[in-house]
Specification:
CATH topology: Aminopeptidase
Number of helices: 4
Order of helices and strands: EHHEEEEHEHEE
Mean pLDDT: 94
CATH architecture: 3-Layer(aba) Sandwich
Keywords: Transferase
Structural class: alpha+beta
Low-confidence stretches: none
InterPro entries: Acyl_CoA_acyltransferase, GNAT_dom
Number of strands: 8
Helix content: 25-40%
Organism: Chryseobacterium gallinarum
Largest sheet: 8 strands, mixed
GO molecular function: acyltransferase activity, transferring groups other than amino-acyl groups
Number of domains: 1
Protein name: GCN5 family acetyltransferase
Length: about 170
């Protein structure tokens, strides 16, 4: 049987599954010795807000949620001030809060997520994808490099400075 992988908007009935996946990721970051996501963010309210605003997306494998991400169009106030320079100043998709279910970890799902986000971006005629990550999130830094993202500088988010990346899509 072929594996079916799809990106779709999350629904309110996905909330508990998404929150469970995020809690797994918070614990994984803690086990890795990271400070990222260790201060009460993201939380259940974040998930509910993402769903309500239409930002919440899930990557499903045979209809089972494997990965969560918030996709936000043209709106990340912290990105207006960068120590460095973005590659473009056109429309963009911001990717935040990527979290993977433990049972799908190590299967390349985050790379598949980015493939689907690129398709989403292209299909909406949007110029680029912007993303930031913590300095100590080595796995994400490697994924961004492997997916062709360019390091653009640093941005200040509520919980500190982050490395900022962009990839031109069209």
């Amino acid at each position: 049987m072929d594996t079916e992988i799809k990106l779709r908007k999350a629904k309110i009935e996905d909330r508990d599954t998404i929150w469970n996946i995020i809690q797994q990721s918070i614990e994984r970051r803690k086990q890795d010795g990271s400070t990222q996501w260790q201060n009460g963010y993201p939380n259940l309210g974040t998930v509910e807000s993402d769903i309500a605003k239409g930002f919440a997306h899930v990557l499903t494998v045979n209809n089972e949620i494997a990965v969560y991400a918030a996709l936000i169009l043209n709106d990340e106030p912290a990105y207006s001030t960068i120590e460095g320079a973005w590659l473009s100043d056109g429309e963009f998709v911001v990717v935040h809060r990527i979290a993977i279910d433990e049972k799908f970890a190590g299967q390349g799902m985050t790379r598949k997520l980015f493939d689907h986000i690129e398709d989403f971006t292209r299909s909406h005629g949007i110029q680029s994808i912007k993303v930031d990550t913590n300095y100590d999130n080595i796995a994400m830094l490697k994924i961004l490099e492997s997916k062709g993202f360019s390091y653009c500088g640093e941005v200040l988010l509520a919980d500190g400075m982050r490395k900022a990346f962009e990839k031109i899509i069209i």
